[in-house]
Amino acid sequence: MSRSEDIRNEVYRFLRQQKEFRYPDPILPGFKGIGKGSAIAAASTAAGATRKTAAGTIATTAPASAPAAARTDLAGARAELGECTRCGLHGQRTNLVFGVGNPNAKLMFIGEAPGADEDRKGEPFVGRAGQLLDKIFAAAEIRREDVYITNIVKCRPPGNRDPHPDEVTTCNPFLLQQIDAIQPQLICALGRFAAQTLLDKTEGIGRLRGRWFDWHGKRLICTYHPSACLRNESYKRPVWNDFQMLRDAYKELVEN
């Protein structure tokens, strides 16, 4: 099979998957961090549109469409991803980092990309940032084994840089499959890049954190990445405030 046929087949598979999930406007290269109208951007914030809940204020309107009723199988998504060589990130990786946790989790955490420790072990959040995240989990009474953890992209970018648009585009279908399979009711975006990518926003994490967004009928909150807290301890207080909001919403789900 020629290279051009390979590319056509990949594009066809991706667009077909977008149609199956009923996400409008497939994400395409050419954005600065995030493309306007991208498939992964699920919530268009309406100015001033908020609603009160027991766990805080949701600062957006509901999205125009939701994932299809047909559920993706998590193991099937992993099998389809295989030993992925769809973008240039595969050339320097040690291990692909798909995700880990409860396949029926009510709460899902999405970070940016694997780091060096994650690349070596093949699991997300196992280095210093992961150790801090575990401490935050314990303080918030969230058990790691009860949640699901993954990243926007599944391979480590060189030098821990932000993923490039084509890399996000390539991994996007598999992240959507993970979300569709798990059907979490709460999502926490860890860090600026994950928050901006999921929400299709350009604001900094300092402006996005501390409030709830509707994301295809799921409630999404953003906070600083644990690695940012390791670099700047002043972020620990707002992270804890965000996790208190998350804890309250999570407890409400678990107890009801």
Detailed description of the structure:
By secondary structure, this protein is α/β, with parallel strands linked by helices. It has a single domain (3-255), classed as Uracil-DNA Glycosylase, subunit E, CATH 3.40.470.10. It is built from 9 helices and 8 strands. A 6-stranded mixed β-sheet has the order 3-5-4-6-8-7, with helices on both faces. Strands 1-2 form a two-stranded antiparallel ribbon. Strand 7 and strand 8 form a beta hairpin. Helix 2 (74-81) runs antiparallel to helix 5. The protein is globular, with a radius of gyration of 17 Å.
Secondary-structure map with pairings?
Layout: H1 3-21, E1 51-53, E2 56-58, H2 74-81, E3 100-101, E4 107-111, H3 116-121, H4 128-139, E5 148-151, H5 165-182, E6 186-190, H6 192-199, H7 205-208, E7 212-215, E8 218-223, H8 226-231, H9 236-255
Parallel strand pairs: 4-5, 4-6, 6-8
Antiparallel strand pairs: 1-2, 3-5, 7-8
Helix pairs in contact: 2-5
Largest sheet: 6 strands, mixed
User: How many domains make up the coordinates?
Assistant: 1
Specify the helix fraction band: 25-40%
- Placed side by side, the strands forming the largest sheet appear as 3-5-4-6-8-7
| Approximate shape | globular
Briefly, what is this?
The chain has 256 residues and is of the alpha/beta class. Helices cover 39% and strands 12% of the residues.
